[in-house]
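User: Last request for today: this protein with desmosterol, please.
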Amino acid sequence: GMPRGDMRMSYEPEDSFCYPTSMMHIEEVCASIVRSHRETSQYRVEELQALRWKLFSREEIHAYQSKSMDEMWQHCALRLTDAVQYVVEFAKRIPGFRQLCQNDQIVLLKNGSMEVVLVRMTRAFNTENSTVFFDGKFAGTELFKALACSDLIAAVFDFAHSLCALRLTEQQVALFSALVLINSDRPCLEERGRVERVKKEVELALSHTLHRDNQEGLMNKLYQKVAILKSLCSLHIEKLRWFRQLYPLTVHSLFPPLYKELFA
Ligand code: MHQ
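Assistant: Here's the final one, the structure of the complex with desmosterol:
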């Protein structure tokens, strides 16, 4: 199952996050989320920037395209799971997340971790040639041909393009990622009110940052992206169901447990 051992957090008084909202407090929430993002971001932006012209050769692309469908799915599931693991770590460090009940923590991660991976993808995306950092180099959509879900891949790349166009700072990416995770509209939350309270804090932190950056107009644009993220993640789940019907044993025996737990 979900690494419950991992998810179980030391006891903290439950009102540790409901002191009155003051400017000082919001600054602290901002700083804490930005730090958590930095510490769990898997790759630093400067690192990714430096590698952005390191492309796969024709031969390498061909090798990926020649993989069998189940082999390529397994490979991508592994890469995605690595990325998701960093997002789980990020979530645990969002002020208030660890104080939510375990059910709600899992609900938020099941619904939001892939969405945050896609938000983080913008840091690893080169808009000039539509490539993404994958396995140490930059890859275009054609490299993922063997997955046989070109519609999903095209939609994910389109999304990366449109989110990159907003030119978010690292701070804005951090706070937007937190807002995507702490979504009190997710089905099956047990203590929706508490999630709502944490969400309000994160929302305040994001709007505070946008105000400081003189970019309040971004808030609406970001909320538009939330809807697209939701549809991309449903498409991912739909593709996984389709794949599992074709290759049940691959999913059962070879996919990472965390990937199955969150998405299957
Ligand atoms: C992260 C690093 C990172 C890691 C993995 C159908 C299916 C199973 C998968 C990257 C979709 C294929 C992912 C690996 C493809 C869209 C997935 C496979 C930021 C995100 C990033 C770059 C992931 C982006 C999405 C990728 C390429 O820090």
